[in-house]
Amino acid sequence: MKKPDVVIVGAGSAGCVTARRCAELGLKTLLLDRKPMEEIGQKVCGDEVSKAHFEATGIDYPEGDEISSVIGGADVYPPNMKNELKIRGWAEFDGWTVNRLSFGQRLLREAISAGAHFIPNVHVGGPMMIGDQVTGIEYKDLMSKDIEIVKSKVVVDASGFAAVIRNKLENPLIEKNIAKEDIALCYREILSLKMPLAEPEVARVFLGGEIAPKGYAWIFPKGVQEINAGVGITGGEGRGSPKSYFKRFKEQYPLLFGAKLIEGKGGAVPVRRPLKSLVGDGIAFVGDSALQVNPIHGGGIGAGMRAGVILGEVVRGAIAMRDISANGLWSYNTRYFPFFGQRLASLEIFRRFLQAVSDDDMNFGFERRLLEAEDLMAANRGDGLSLSTVDKLKRVKRGAGRISLLMKLQKAAGLMKKLSKLYSNYPNSPDKLDSWEKSVLDIIESANFE
Fold this sequence. Notes:
35% of the residues lie in helices and 24% in strands. By secondary structure, the protein is an alpha/beta fold. The strands form four sheets. The chain has a seven-stranded mixed beta sheet with strand order 6-5-14-15-16-13-17, with helices on one face. Strands 8-2-1-12-19-18 form a six-stranded mixed beta sheet. It is globular and about 65 Å long.
């Protein structure tokens, strides 16, 4: 396939879904990945995905050996481990921890069955260009060492956080430099516990600077007696490695005493709003390459799948209209940002708020329930932290003595609402992007809660 309509770099969940949708719509689709075919799906990840993402995309639910555990709730712990917030009974929270290899293999099979051509074991060197227009890619076959050039109408960078295409482009529409404080360094282990879990359907999240500076620790069930547990920290300069924090966590948390290590790996994930534009001339970005992750916990499986379906349809329309410029691909932005994308953006404000709260204030907030389960779910839906007048008065009463904390909470609520509104009015053409981005950055810069 020397001249496909679209070439997709990276066969993760976002890349496979994009490839499947492109192929279903009749496009000649080439999917490339560095890994061997039998390793597609393997990734350092929390492995959790919500049912809502499958309902939104029409992709079949995980089943059989793709499912490690069914998830139906979460416990969120403050630094002192007391007064945890129990989240139960929210349908939008229901989902699974998945076996990433089995699930990834299924998404790959579906892309191939739809007509995508897959080539594993390749290293993509970079984009082919004519001026600012991306016209294809160059890759090296890792087995034969042959160099191949592929010309295509559209290139999709689905290469994950490495963003092997995006990082080699010079275009004012395309962001390259991601701030260190917007990157989470993670370490996770798959562990077999000595005792079965009391609630194998409940995820656990742990906050606090001692446990994970400007991040969190997690324990996600992968069965009755197996878990995915780890630590993610942001802007990790001078703070030590996430592995060292996880080692300390294992030594202090009774559930993990004597657990048997199955696998341990580290990685990095972006934890900020998505790229200002998901497209350029002849190029589009999806998944971690597009920063399509939840800034609170770094989860990106569902966000990337949602984007992949939209992107496949947009690429088909742009090729049909013979306009594969940024302008021709722009509806990817206008279909993603005002809806699911604005959720991700507003959660960056919430992440900054949580990172700025001291351990002492966080313990107080959990004790007095200054944040309720409903607040967390509303924020996750993109509804912000909409506090009514009556609600504010109740929280002021409960938070007496910590007015500064309440003010920070109210500030976060206001900024989340502003940012959501801005994303709901995403510009309808590239020429309006600069002024829109300035408004976004003004809000982000004002989200200082120190």
